[in-house]
Amino acid sequence: MSSGGWFHLLPNASANARPLDELWWAMVGLCALVAVGVFVVMFVFCIRYRKGRPADRQLSKETLPVELTWTTVPFLIFMGVFVWSLTLYARSRTPPTNAETIYVVAKQWMWKVQHPGGQREINTLHVPTGVPIRLMMTSQDVIHSFFVPAFRVKQDVLPDRYTQLWFTATQTGDYPLYCTQYCGLDHSKMGGQVIVMAPRAYARWLDQHDTGTSLAAQGAALFRAKGCSGCHGANASVHAPDLDGIYGRIVHLSDGSTATADDRYIHDSIMLPEKQIVAGYAPIMPSFSGELSESDVLAIIAYLKSTRPGRVPAHQSTKQSARQGTRSDP
Amino acid sequence: MNSSAASIREQDLRARGLVAEQFDDAEQQHATAQFGMWVFLATEILFFGVLFAGYAVCRVRDPEGFLLGSQHTEILFGAVEAGILLLSSATVTFAVNLIEFDERRMVTMLLAVTALLGVAFLVLHGVEYSHEHDEHLMVGVDFAQHGPHARGIELFFFLYYAMTLYHSLHVLVGVCVIATMGVLVWRGKIRGEYTTPLVLAGLYWHLVDIVWIFLFPLMYLIGR
Amino acid sequence: MNATAITPDFPELEPPRNFYTHRSGLRSWLLTTDHKRIAILYAITITLFFIMGGVAAAMIRINLVEPQGALLSAETYNKTFTFHGVVMVWFFLIPSIPATLGNFLLPIMIGARDLAFPRLNLASWYLFVIGGCFTIACLLLGGVDTGWTFYTPFSTMFSNTSVILVAVGVFVTGFSTILTGLNFIVTTHKLRMPGMTWFKLPLFVWAMYAVSVVMVLATPVLAMTLSLIGLERIAHVGIFDPALGGDPLLFQHMFWFYSHPAVYIMILPAMGVVSEIIPCFSRRKIFGYRFMVYALVGISVIGFLVWGHHMFVAGMSATATLVFSILSFIIAVPSAIKVFNWTATLRRGRISFEAPMLYALGFVGLFMLGGLTGLMLAAPALDIPLHATYFVIAHFHYVMVGGSVMAYLGGIHYWWPKITGRMYSEAWARFAAILMFFGFNMTFFPQYVLGYLGMPRRYHAYPPQFQTLNILSSAGASILAIAYLIPVVYLGWSLFRGARAGNNPWGARGLEWQTTSPPPKGNFLERPVVQKAYAYDEAAPGGEPATGATA
After folding, report:
1. Are C442 and C472 within 8 A, CB to CB?
2. Are A42 and C452 a contacting pair at CB < 8 A?
3. Cross-sheet strand order for the sheet of A153-157
4. Rounded CA separation A107/A109 (Å)
5. Are B151 and A274 an interchain contact pair (Cβ–Cβ within 8 Å)?
6. Closest to A49 (Cβ–Cβ): which among C287, C333, C348?
7. Which of residues 159-178 of C touch B (CB under 8 A)?
8. What are the chain A neighbours of C364 within 8 Å (beta carbons)?
9. Neighboring chain B residues of C185 at a CB cutoff of 8 Å
10. Picking from A275-284, C197-206, C485-494, which range would have the lowest pLDDT averaged per residue?
11. Which of A152, C109, C497, C508 could form a disulfide with C385 if both were Cys (CB 3.0 to 4.6 A apart)?
C-alpha cells in the first residue's frame, strides 16, 4: 500500500506526519490562493486594459496606503506561518524521554542498524508501532542523510558526530528509506525499508534475530579487549577517570569549563581525546581512531550507558548489562 | 586658473591621452579610479575574511592546540616583518605625497625602498618557512608533531600556511606594482599632473600592510 | 523639448554609422574596449555555455525516463548533473543579464559614453572565456562528481575526480564576476550624467547596481572557499576534516554564505529587466518606484543573512535554524512587493502583448510560484521532509529558469532592435514564448509532486512508483528544448533579413531609446539631457510615447 502504483498519496505513518501534513496543505492552500489571486488580477487587467479597448484609465495619486497594506499583510501572514511551524519544529527536535534508542551507522553505500539488544540489520529498520524511537546516527565516511518520507523525517548523518531524529510509527507496513545527501557513486542505491510491526510481532522479531549479546555486552567485551579497563577499571594503576555511570553526568574539564558526558563527548574522548581533558588528569589517553570503528564506539557507549555509579565494577558488567541492554535506556 | 585656461588644460590632457574618453575631466577620472580601488580593496577584505572566520571557528574549538601552535612560530621574524611593512607603508605614503611636487628622484627612491622592503619581507618569510620545514611543521609536506594536541597544531599550521601564503602572494604582486610605478615615475610618465596609478598602488600596498597587522597577532602572539 | 536630435528616422537612406561600423575586423572585436561590443562577445559565449548546460540537462532527463537509468551509468550521471550545475550557475546564469544586457545598457541608461573601466571590462571577458574553457575542458575530460556544491568531506577526501582543476577554473571565472560588478558600481556612482540623480535611475540600473554589490562582496568568499578545498586535497589535511578536529559543516557555512547571495545575483537582474518591459507595454510608469528600489536593495542586503536555510537538516543548532528561518520569511516580503507592483502597473494601462511582454508576464507568474514554494521551504518543519528532494529542484528551476531565463529572453527581445538595429519576427517570437511557458510548466511542475512524494535529488536511478511523473517531466523538457531553439533561428535570421528598426520601435521611455539603433560608438551623437518628464518622474496619464519615438 505504500509502494507500487503510479501515483499514491504519501502515507501518514508516524505521529507527527498528520500535523505536518496539516501545515503542508495549509501552505499549499495559501500559496494557491495567492497565486490564483495574482493570476486572476493579471488576467483581468490584461483583458480589460488591453490596447484599443475603451476603459477608465484615470490613475489615483495616493498609492502609499495600498503599498503599506500589501507589505504588512504578507509580513504578518509569514510570521504566522513561522510561529506555526516553530511548534512542529520544536517537537521534531525533542524526543520524549522514554524513547528507545536505535543506532545507525551510515557508510558508502549502506545503512547499518544496531538495536540495543544486539540485533543488527543492513538497509532495513524494524520498529514497533506506538513506541517513540530515537535514531542515533553517525557516518563512517562522508555526509549521508536518513530520510523516510512516510514519517516525514530526515536528518543528515555526519562523520565524527552524532545526529539524531525521532519518530513514533503509527501504521504497520513497509516504508521506503532513502539516502538523500549526495554521497558518491551509488547514492541512489543507498536505500532500504523501514518495517513497522505491531509490538508483539516486533518482540518476536527481536527474539528471532537475537545474537545472544546485547549491544552493551558487546561494548563491555570491547572495553576489556581494547584495554580500556586497564586504565579506567577499578583496579587500574593508571590515574584515569572512573567511567561507571558517566553517561549524562556533568564533567569538569581542565580549562575550567564543564561538559555533559553525552554520546558526542564519549565518542570524542575515544577518538579525539585531547579535545577535552578532565580536570585533574594528565592528557595521556591515546586515540583509538583507526582501531575502533564507529559501530564499536556505539557499542561502548551503550555499555557505558548501562553502568551505574560505583555499584557495578567495569570488569563484572557482562551479564548485568546484557539484561539491561534490552530495555530502553534514556 | 580661470575657466578658459582650465578647459584648455583639460583639452591638452585629453589630447595627450591622459584623460580617457569616458570621463568628462581629469578630476572625474581620478576620483573614479580611486573609488574603484576602494571597491577592489573591499573584495580583498571579504577574500581574507573567510580565512579569518575559519581561524576563529577552529580556535574556539581547540584553544589549547592553537596556543601551542602559535608558540612554534618565530615571533622575532614576525615582528621584524611587521616593522618592515609599516615602514614601507610610510615610504609609499611619502612618495604619493611628494609626486604632487614633481620630485622625481625622491619619489623614485622612496618607491625603490618600498619595493626592497617588500622583498625583504618575502625573504624573511622564506627563511621562516625553511625553519618550519626543519622542525617538521610544514603541513602537507613534512609534518610530524606529537603529543595530545598534535591535531590542533596541524590545524593551526594549515591556516598559518594558507593565510601567509596568500598574503605573501599579495606582497609579491605589490612589489611588482610598486617597482613598475618607480620605473614610470623615473621615466616621467607619472608626475604632478597625472598621479592616479601611484595613488592606487599606494592604497593597495596599505591593504597588504593592514592584513599583516591582523595576521601577526593572531598567528604569532597568542599565548605569549 | 526635443533636446536629443539624433539621426533622422529614415535609417535606410543613410549608410549606417554605429558601433559596428566604427571599426571592423576580428582584432577590433577581440581588443575592443567598447562596452557594447564586449556585451555581444559575452552574449555569444554564454549562449554556447547555455547550449552545453542544456545538453547535460537533456541527458539527465532522458536518463530519468527509466527507473534504472535509461542512458547513463551512475558514474557518468553523477558527473553529468555536476556539469549541468556548474555550467548553468557559473557560466550561464550569473553572467547572463549583467554581462550582456547590463554591459550594453548601463552606460547608455545613465547617459555615459562607456563604463568607468573599459579595459577591465575586456579583461573580465577574457577571464570568463579562459576560466570557462578550462573548467569545461576539465569537466569533460576527467569529470567531477561532487555536484556543483562540492560538499566535504566527499569533495576533499573521497572523490577521485578533477576537483582541484575545476575549483581553479571556477576561481578564475569568479574574478570576471568581481570585475564586472566593480565596474558597474563605480560607473553608477561616478558617471551619471548631470541631472541623472539616483531616484531618476531606471529600475534596470538599480538592479545592476544592487546585483553588483552582491557580486563584489560574495564572490571573493567563494574563491577562498574553493581554494580551501584545493588546499585540503593537496595537503590531505584541512579545516573541514573531522578527523583532525575540523568541521565539514564549516564548509557548508562558507559555501552557502556565497551561494545564497549567488541566487540573488541570478534573480535581481531579471527583476530589473521585467521592471523595464512591463511599464513600456502597459504604457504606464512602474507602480511604486520607490518601493521597488527599496525592495531591490532590501533583497540584496538581507540576501547575505539567510544562507543557513540550506542547512536546516545539516546539524545546525535549533537557534541558528530559527534565526535563518525567520530571516528567510522576511526576505520574501520585498519579493512579494515587487510581484504586486508589477501587477498593479498593468492597471489602467494600455496593454499590448509583444514577445517581451509575454516573457515578462510569464516571469511574474513563474517567479511567484517559485517564490511561494520557497516560502514553504523557509519553514524548518516543512523543510525537513522536502529538503534535498525534487521539490527543491522544482523550486529553484521555477525561479531560475521560469524566472531568470525568461526575463533574459524577454530582455534580449526587448532590446534586440536597439542592439542590432533589426526587428525580429513577432509571430515566431510569441509562439516560442508561449511554447516555452507550457514546456517549462510541464517539465517542472511534476517535480513538485515528486518531491512531496519523497523522490530524492541527484538520483541516477529511482523507485518505479516515480516513473510516470518522471516521464511527464522529460516530455516537457523536450518541448522546452524546442522552444529554446526556435529563437536562435528567427533571431539569427533577423540579423540578415529583419526589418530595420528605428530609434524607438516600442515607444518606450529611457535614454537608450533616444539614440540610434544600433547606437554610435560613444552612445550618443549629442549629449542627452535628462528631462523632468523622464519615465520615473511623470508620465502623461494616457501614456504618450516618448519624444523621438517612431511607433
Report:
1. yes
2. no
3. A124-128, A191-197, A173-179, A144-148, A153-157
4. 5
5. yes
6. C348
7. 178
8. 38, 42
9. 39
10. A275-284
11. A152
Query: CB of C245 within 8 Å of any CB in chain B?
Result: yes
Instruction: Please give the pLDDT value at position A53.
Output: 87
A92, three cell numbers = 521534531
Task: Provide CB contacts within 8 A for B5, sequence distance 6+.
Answer: none
How many other CB atoms are found less than 10 A from the CB of residue C60? 19
Q: What is the pTM for the complete model shown?
A: 0.91
| Alpha-carbon gap: C541 to the closest alpha carbon of chain A (Å) | 7
Cell of B203: 592604497
Taking CA atoms, what residue in C is nearest to A11? C453
Longest C-alpha distance within chain C, in Å? 75
pLDDT tens digits for range B82-92: 999 999 999 99
Determine the residue of chain C that is closest to A92 in CA distance.
C381
What single string gives the DSSP state of each residue in C343-365? Answer: HHHHTTS-B---HHHHHHHHHHH
**Which grid cell is C66?**
527509466
Q: Which of B14, B29, B39, B160 to mutate to test the interface with C (most CBs of C within 10 A)?
A: B39
Please give, rounded to a whole number of angstroms, the shortest distance from the CA of C245 to a CA of chain B. Answer: 7
pLDDT over 70 (residue C484)? yes
Q: State how far the Cα of C180 lies from the Cα of C497, in Å rounded to an integer.
A: 33
Amino acid code (one letter) for C457: R
Distance from CA of C267 to the nearest CA of A (A): 19
Q: What is the separation, in whole angstroms, between the first and last Cα of chain B?
A: 59
Residues in Cβ contact with C489 at an 8 Å cutoff, skipping those fewer than 6 apart: C428
Calpha distance C191→C207 (Å, rounded):
17
3-state secondary structure C497-544: HCCECCCCCCCCCCHHHHCCCCCCCCCCCCCCCCCCCCCCCCCCCCCC
> Which pLDDT tens digit goes with each residue over A116-146?
888 999 999 999 999 999 999 999 999 999 9
SS3 call for A317: coil
Q: Do C216 and B51 touch (CB under 8 A)?
A: no
User: Interface partners of B (3+ CB pairs, < 8 Å)?
Assistant: A, C
Distance CA C89, CA C76 (A): 20
Which site among C313, C321, C437, C544 would you substitute to test the A interface, given the most A Cβ atoms closer than 10 Å to its Cβ? Answer: C313
Instruction: Looking at the complex, report in whole angstroms how far the Cα of residue B207 sits from the nearest Cα belonging to chain C.
Output: 16
Q: Judge contact between C490 and C446, C-beta under 8 A.
A: no
Closest CA to C183 of C304, C35, C30: C35
Does the beta carbon of A27 lie under 8 angstroms from any beta carbon of chain C? Answer: yes
Contacts for C317 with CB less than 8 Å, ≥ 6 apart: none
Please give the share of chain B, as a percent, with pLDDT higher than 70.
99
Q: How many CB pairs under 8 A join A and B?
A: 19
Neighbours of chain A (3+ CB pairs under 8 A): B, C
Instruction: Please provide the DSSP assignment of A6-69 as one string.
Output: S--PPP--BTTHHHHHHHHHHHHHHHHHHHHHHHHHHHHHHHHTBTTS----PPPS--HHHHHH
Type of residue numbered C377: L
pLDDT classification of C531: cutoffs 50, 70, 90: low
Distance from CA of C117 to the nearest CA of B (A): 8
What's the distance, CA C532 to chain centroid?
A: 32
- Count of C-beta atoms within a 10 Å radius of residue A132: 18
Minimal-distance CA residue of chain C relative to A65: C288
pLDDT at residue B147, rounded to an integer: 79
For chain A, how long is the longest CA-to-CA vector?
100
pLDDT-derived band at A312, boundaries 50, 70, 90: very low
Phi, psi angle pair for B89, to nearest 5°:
-65, -35
- Strand, coil or helix: A193: strand
The x, y and z cell numbers of residue B35, run together, are 573609488
Confidence of residue B2 (pLDDT cuts 50, 70, 90): low
Average pLDDT over residues A177-202: 95
- State the Cα–Cα distance between residues A116 and A100, nearest whole angstrom: 9
